[in-house]
Amino acid sequence: MIDLLSSVCFGIGIFFWFWGTWPLVGNRSVLFKLHSLSVSDTLGSMAIIIGLLLKLPHEWPLLLLALISLAIWNTVLGYVLAYCASGRGRYD
Amino acid sequence: MIGYRDLLLRLTIWFLLTADLSWANIFMGVAVSLLLPTFGPRSYTAPAILKDWLQIMWEMIVAVPRAYFEAFEMILFPHDREEITVEPSKPRRTPGLLFLDIFLITFTPKTIVVKHYEEGRHEVHWVRRRRRR
Q1: Could B19 and A42 be called an inter-chain contact, meaning their C-beta atoms sit closer than 8 Å?
Q2: What is the pLDDT of residues B66-125, one digit of tens each?
Q3: Mutation for A interface: B16, B73, B126, most A CBs within 10 A
Q4: Is residue B105 domain-shared with residue B133, that is, in the same domain?
């Protein structure tokens, strides 16, 4: 049962990765691409780590740390990229 | 002097990283947390702030399922329209709370904060569903 659940999490994560990365080659604005990247990189990777957490519960401290770091770093870098892409910052 | 929130954050990271609750490790963790320098100005004596922190912690927990819900919405229905709105931020925020406000908005996939103005506004970029005519 746990194996099935973790496989579902892996599946969702990998699907999110491809779905969010594909628009990168498209012809949209940087900000639009950032929205789909936050689906793939943040939520997809988090789903994969939750799958790993179900499979290797004894490694929970490191996986939890990875989960928190992923959420914070992806989001903050997304904000930094959006800020730079808008091109109206005082410091760029 | 270090604030209790900084101490809590450092100890959490230390224990998650080392995964060891022996006395020696607890002692080392506390020592390292106290010895590391603090960065930037901190406000220690604001009574209403603890309530704000608890509220934003709760909002962060709720934001995770909402983010997945929005992700599935974006996958199932094409969100082609982009727009930028300017939204007011909550009054009297410390830099830490302001960081978490921006984090919360940017974490959900449909919204990204593009810019924050000092006078208390965010510029938020949205993707929205195409309207059927």
Answers
A1: no
A2: 999 999 999 998 888 888 899 888 877 788 888 889 999 999 999 999 988 888 888 899
A3: B16
A4: yes
Residue A22 included in any domain:
yes
Q: Could you identify the residue written with the tokens 């910052």? A: A89
**What distance in Å separates the CA atoms of residue A32 and residue A23, rounded to the nearest whole number?**
9
User: Any chain B CB within 8 A of the CB of A64?
Assistant: yes
- Is this structure's pTM higher than 0.80? yes
Contact residues, B window 62-121, toward A, CB-based 8 Å cutoff: 64, 67-68, 71, 74-75, 79, 82, 102-103, 106-107, 109-110, 112-115
- Strands B111-117, B81-88: pairing kind: unpaired
Q: Is residue B34 located within the same domain as residue B49?
A: no
User: Are the Cβ atoms of B113 and A82 closer than 8 angstroms?
Assistant: yes
The total of structural domains in chain A comes to 1
Instruction: Give the total number of structural domains in chain B.
Output: 2
Q: Three-class SS string for chain B? A: CCCHHHHHHHHHHHHHHHCCCCHHHHHHHHHHHHHCCCCCCCCCCCCCHHHHHHHHHHHHHHHHHHHHHHHHHHHHCCCCEEEEEEEECCCCCCHHHHHHHHHHHHHCCCEEEEEEECCCEEEEEEEECCCCC
Nearest to B111 by CA among B73, B72, B84, B75: B84
ipTM computed for the complex: 0.87
